[in-house]
Amino acid sequence: MKVEWRKQEKQIYLPKEKPELISVPEQKFFMIRGQGNPNQDDFAERVAVLYSLAYAVRMMPKQGYTPEGYLEYTVYPLEGVWDLTEEGRKLDVLNKDELVYTIMIRQPDFVTEEVVERAFESVRKKKPHPLLDEVVFDTMEEGLSLQMLHVGPYDDEPRSFALMKEFIENNNLERTTLLHKEIYLTDARKVDLEKQRTVLRYWVRSVH
């Protein structure tokens, strides 16, 4: 059996193009923090080091080690939690140089600290990366969330955020933080801007 997030976890990863509530369970991630414009090389390097670790885990059985509970699976998509610097929050328009982010790739449930250590070891040997020591392995439980699929360029996301804001106001909800999450279902380098597919997610709670 192959575990494919597009098939088995549609509710989390393939929402409709309209806001919907979902409860997101605790998940495991390789994560790395960064700051600045995501169109620059530094962001691409941070993405690259995450993928090198994610594929090191995925390919372990081919390298002669099969973790306990391992199931063949599709590597999860890149995700990012976005914020702004204090300076960036004061501006009326978005300055991408003031963005602060944590990007991450989810790991399957069988991944333990031992598996993580082996992944780091493997990457250090095969393809050492200067940012490797900045990556952490951690869990994240998002709980009640409002999400929707955004189709189109990243710069057009405010259109979808406006729909999410309206949903919140009409359904006795409030955001628990100004941070938001994005899940990238398409590779921005390979897909036309108009066809980019991104899950947008706010963390919310009920207000009575």
UniProtKB/TrEMBL annotation:
Q: What is this protein called?
A: GyrI-like small molecule binding domain-containing protein
User: Which segments cross the bilayer?
Assistant: none
Short name of one Pfam family: GyrI-like
Domain spans labelled GyrI-like small molecule binding: 18-204
Which superkingdom does the taxonomy of this entry point to?
Bacteria
